[in-house]
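Subject: design request, 351 residues
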């Protein structure tokens, strides 16, 4: 069975982009066809200025929403990245394989670092090394496929490159993963700025539909989406990006093809009304289930505890193998057995 791994960063409230580009497919397809792990990647949320209490809250909320969206802990593993030490352990080894030039070429780094500098802030080193941690997330699990939105393609390519390089230098240790994308809505754009991705950490709230937005808020945001100067409702991403984005969203919600929706609507207003209702209907069951799960926080905590335990057991052998392959001396127990862990504890016990 294929191994699938993907993650979501608790750096803001989950958006329609996250749902259509990733989460919906995890729940509807990936958990049924693969041995799948889905991770709330909280360490990644620390790469920019953050409020500790908010990260904790958003992590819990993301986990609850993943379950509300239909991830079934009987079928897949749902867990929090910082609960499994293997991610950080492996990340350092991969930093010893990656180059700084490779990191500086990452588009998301360049964009986010520029934004941070424009605000007069400093750029955290972890923002630069972020893609290496992401590669560790993926490679620790022997992942074959990484279902993500289009914006993550370059990062998954880096994970591939690092896996190949590590294997060539130190012997075959990692499976070489590949990204998969949804056919429609792999890149949902901001409704107010159709030239930019609908991103959860962005400041431009009115153009972002959040999964927990009330129906009237969703309607208002969609009705106020920026449209283009033409009049015809056709799918033309270059010429009419605002309309193309609405057509993509509508097609993704109704299971159609955006090109087939060209010419169906007599006006921009009609397209917006249809899109707004489709989004409201799409989110309705997720929001209802989210409300139920919020009343049972013990259930969510239990899912995350079990998930972390399963994830740890899956990651550990691969990460231990990488430690040995790269030249680190294994820790040895007093019986002489290679424990692969915690030299400090072994030494203390021997004193
Ligand atoms: P994140 O948290 O930004 O997004 C989570 C998932 O949602 C997708 N996505 C979108 N898809 C379509 N349109 C959009 N506007 C949109 N916005 C977000 C993302 O492509 C992603 O699939 N670096 C990752 C998290 C991560 C990860 C990993 C992913 C860390 N380690 C290992 C996969 C495997 C990120 O910031 O995703």
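Subject: RE: design request

Done. Sequence follows.
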């Amino acid at each position: 069975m294929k191994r699938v791994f993907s993650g979501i960063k608790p750096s803001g409230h989950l958006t329609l982009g996250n749902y259509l580009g990733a989460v919906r497919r995890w729940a509807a397809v990936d958990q049924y066809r693969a041995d799948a792990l889905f991770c709330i990647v909280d360490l990644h949320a620390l790469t920019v200025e953050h409020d500790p209490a908010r990260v904790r809250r958003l992590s819990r909320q993301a986990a609850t929403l993943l379950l509300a969206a239909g991830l079934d802990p009987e079928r897949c593993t749902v867990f929090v990245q910082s609960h499994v030490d293997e991610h950080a352990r492996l990340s350092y080894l991969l930093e010893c394989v990656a180059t700084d030039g490779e990191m500086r070429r990452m588009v998301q780094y360049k964009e986010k670092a520029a934004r941070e500098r424009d605000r007069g802030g400093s750029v955290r080193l972890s923002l630069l090394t972020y893609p290496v941690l992401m590669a560790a997330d993926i490679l620790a699990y022997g992942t074959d496929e990484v279902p993500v939105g289009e914006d993550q393609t370059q990062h998954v390519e880096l994970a591939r490159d690092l896996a190949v390089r590590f294997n060539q230098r130190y012997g075959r240790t990692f499976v070489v993963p590949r990204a998969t994308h949804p056919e429609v809505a792999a890149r949902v754009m901001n409704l107010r700025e159709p030239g930019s991705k609908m991103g959860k950490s962005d400041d431009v709230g009115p153009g972002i539909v959040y999964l927990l937005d009330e129906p009237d808020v969703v309607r208002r945001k969609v009705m106020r989406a920026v449209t283009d100067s033409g009049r015809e409702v056709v799918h033309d991403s270059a010429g009419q990006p605002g309309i193309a984005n609405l057509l993509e969203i509508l097609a993704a919600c109704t299971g159609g093809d955006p090109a087939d929706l060209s010419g169906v609507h007599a006006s921009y207003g009609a397209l917006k009304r249809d899109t707004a209702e489709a989004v409201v209907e799409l989110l309705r069951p997720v929001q209802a289930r989210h409300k139920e799960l919020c009343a049972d926080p013990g259930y969510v905590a239990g899912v995350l505890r079990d998930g972390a335990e399963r994830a740890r057991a899956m990651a550990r052998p691969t990460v231990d193998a990488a430690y040995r392959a790269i030249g680190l001396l294994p820790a040895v127990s007093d019986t002489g057995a290679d424990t692969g862990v915690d030299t400090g504890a072994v030494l203390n016990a021997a004193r």
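The longest helix spans residues 297-326.
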